Amino acid sequence: MDARDGGSWISQVRRFFLEYVKDELGIEKVPMKKVVCPTCRGEGSHVNPSIDSHGLTAEDFEQDPDFEEGYREGRYDVACYECDGLRVVDDFDFDRCPKLQKEWEEYVDDAQADHATEMAERAMGA
Protein backbone atom coordinates (compact mmCIF):
# COMPACT_ATOMS: atom_id res chain seq x y z
CA MET A 1 0.00 0.00 0.00
CA ASP A 2 1.38 3.37 -0.99
CA ALA A 3 1.08 6.25 1.44
CA ARG A 4 -0.50 8.31 -1.34
CA ASP A 5 -3.43 5.90 -1.28
CA GLY A 6 -4.70 7.56 1.87
CA GLY A 7 -2.04 7.92 4.51
CA SER A 8 0.21 5.53 6.27
CA TRP A 9 -0.43 1.83 6.74
CA ILE A 10 -1.63 2.38 10.30
CA SER A 11 -4.05 5.13 9.25
CA GLN A 12 -5.59 2.68 6.78
CA VAL A 13 -5.90 0.10 9.55
CA ARG A 14 -7.60 2.75 11.74
CA ARG A 15 -10.18 3.42 9.02
CA PHE A 16 -10.93 -0.28 8.56
CA PHE A 17 -11.14 -0.75 12.34
CA LEU A 18 -13.75 2.02 12.57
CA GLU A 19 -15.86 0.18 10.00
CA TYR A 20 -15.36 -3.08 11.92
CA VAL A 21 -16.38 -1.45 15.22
CA LYS A 22 -19.53 -0.02 13.69
CA ASP A 23 -20.52 -3.08 11.65
CA GLU A 24 -19.37 -5.99 13.82
CA LEU A 25 -19.50 -4.57 17.34
CA GLY A 26 -22.45 -2.26 16.81
CA ILE A 27 -20.73 0.75 18.35
CA GLU A 28 -21.84 3.85 16.48
CA LYS A 29 -19.97 6.56 18.36
CA VAL A 30 -16.30 5.74 18.85
CA PRO A 31 -14.55 8.21 21.17
CA MET A 32 -11.68 9.93 19.40
CA LYS A 33 -9.00 12.42 20.33
CA LYS A 34 -6.45 14.49 18.44
CA VAL A 35 -2.82 13.38 18.67
CA VAL A 36 0.39 14.57 17.07
CA CYS A 37 0.75 12.94 13.67
CA PRO A 38 3.10 9.96 14.03
CA THR A 39 4.25 10.15 10.40
CA CYS A 40 5.55 13.73 10.34
CA ARG A 41 5.85 14.05 14.14
CA GLY A 42 3.87 17.29 14.04
CA GLU A 43 5.94 18.96 11.34
CA GLY A 44 3.21 18.85 8.69
CA SER A 45 5.60 17.58 6.03
CA HIS A 46 8.17 14.89 5.38
CA VAL A 47 10.63 13.96 2.67
CA ASN A 48 8.93 12.62 -0.43
CA PRO A 49 9.20 8.82 -0.03
CA SER A 50 10.28 8.48 -3.66
CA ILE A 51 13.48 10.29 -2.62
CA ASP A 52 14.55 8.32 0.42
CA SER A 53 12.26 5.32 0.94
CA HIS A 54 15.01 2.98 -0.26
CA GLY A 55 17.42 4.49 2.28
CA LEU A 56 20.21 6.94 1.71
CA THR A 57 23.89 6.51 2.44
CA ALA A 58 26.75 8.95 2.91
CA GLU A 59 27.79 7.97 -0.62
CA ASP A 60 24.54 9.41 -2.02
CA PHE A 61 25.42 12.77 -0.54
CA GLU A 62 29.10 12.59 -1.48
CA GLN A 63 28.21 12.01 -5.13
CA ASP A 64 25.94 15.07 -5.25
CA PRO A 65 26.58 17.80 -2.66
CA ASP A 66 23.72 19.89 -4.09
CA PHE A 67 21.35 16.99 -3.40
CA GLU A 68 22.52 16.85 0.21
CA GLU A 69 22.02 20.59 0.63
CA GLY A 70 18.52 20.41 -0.85
CA TYR A 71 17.66 17.36 1.22
CA ARG A 72 18.72 19.06 4.45
CA GLU A 73 16.92 22.31 3.51
CA GLY A 74 13.65 20.48 2.86
CA ARG A 75 13.61 20.99 -0.90
CA TYR A 76 12.24 17.45 -1.35
CA ASP A 77 9.57 17.70 1.35
CA VAL A 78 5.88 17.15 0.64
CA ALA A 79 2.77 17.70 2.74
CA CYS A 80 2.43 14.79 5.12
CA TYR A 81 0.57 11.89 3.54
CA GLU A 82 -1.14 10.98 6.81
CA CYS A 83 -2.30 14.33 8.24
CA ASP A 84 -2.30 16.32 4.98
CA GLY A 85 -0.14 18.97 6.65
CA LEU A 86 -2.50 19.49 9.60
CA ARG A 87 0.08 18.11 12.08
CA VAL A 88 -2.52 16.15 14.06
CA VAL A 89 -4.63 13.06 13.39
CA ASP A 90 -7.61 11.43 15.05
CA ASP A 91 -6.86 8.49 17.29
CA PHE A 92 -9.00 6.29 19.49
CA ASP A 93 -9.58 7.52 23.03
CA PHE A 94 -9.30 4.26 24.93
CA ASP A 95 -9.57 6.09 28.27
CA ARG A 96 -13.19 6.84 27.42
CA CYS A 97 -13.90 3.36 26.03
CA PRO A 98 -11.40 0.82 27.45
CA LYS A 99 -13.11 -2.25 25.95
CA LEU A 100 -12.06 -1.07 22.50
CA GLN A 101 -8.36 -1.26 23.34
CA LYS A 102 -8.30 -5.08 23.40
CA GLU A 103 -10.28 -5.19 20.14
CA TRP A 104 -7.85 -2.68 18.58
CA GLU A 105 -4.76 -4.60 19.66
CA GLU A 106 -6.14 -7.84 18.25
CA TYR A 107 -7.18 -6.09 15.03
CA VAL A 108 -3.71 -4.58 14.56
CA ASP A 109 -2.04 -7.95 15.24
CA ASP A 110 -4.23 -9.56 12.57
CA ALA A 111 -3.61 -6.70 10.13
CA GLN A 112 0.16 -6.94 10.66
CA ALA A 113 0.10 -10.67 10.03
CA ASP A 114 -1.95 -10.17 6.85
CA HIS A 115 0.40 -7.42 5.70
CA ALA A 116 3.47 -9.59 6.34
CA THR A 117 1.91 -12.43 4.36
CA GLU A 118 1.09 -10.11 1.48
CA MET A 119 4.66 -8.74 1.42
CA ALA A 120 6.09 -12.27 1.46
CA GLU A 121 3.84 -13.29 -1.41
CA ARG A 122 4.89 -10.23 -3.41
CA ALA A 123 8.54 -11.00 -2.76
CA MET A 124 7.96 -14.50 -4.16
CA GLY A 125 6.31 -13.08 -7.26
CA ALA A 126 2.76 -14.03 -6.41
In short:
The protein is of the alpha+beta class and 126 residues long. The chain is built from 5 helices and 4 strands, in the order αββαααββα. The chain has one domain (3-116).
Q: Give the CA-CA distance, first to last residue.
A: 16 Å
Strand order of the largest sheet: 1-4
| N to C succession of SSEs | HEEHHHEEH
- Taken together, the total number of domains comes to 1
Query: What is the count of DSSP helices, taking H or I runs of 4+ residues?
Result: 5
Net shape: flat
Quantity of strands, as a count: 4
Low-confidence stretches: 1-6
What structural class do helix, strand and pairing data support? alpha+beta
Strand content: 5-15%
**Largest pleated sheet:** 2 strands, antiparallel
Strand and helix layout:
Elements (H helix, E strand, L loop, with lengths): L8 H15 L8 E5 L8 E3 L1 H4 L5 H6 L1 H9 L3 E3 L8 E5 L6 H25 L3
Antiparallel strand pairs: 1-4, 2-3
Helix pairs in contact: 1-5
Characterize the structure shown.
The protein has 126 residues and is an alpha+beta fold. It has one domain (3-116). It is 47% helix and 13% strand. It has helices at 9-23, 49-52, 58-63, 65-73, 99-123; strands at residues 32-36, 45-47, 77-79, 88-92. The longest helix has 25 residues, at 99-123.
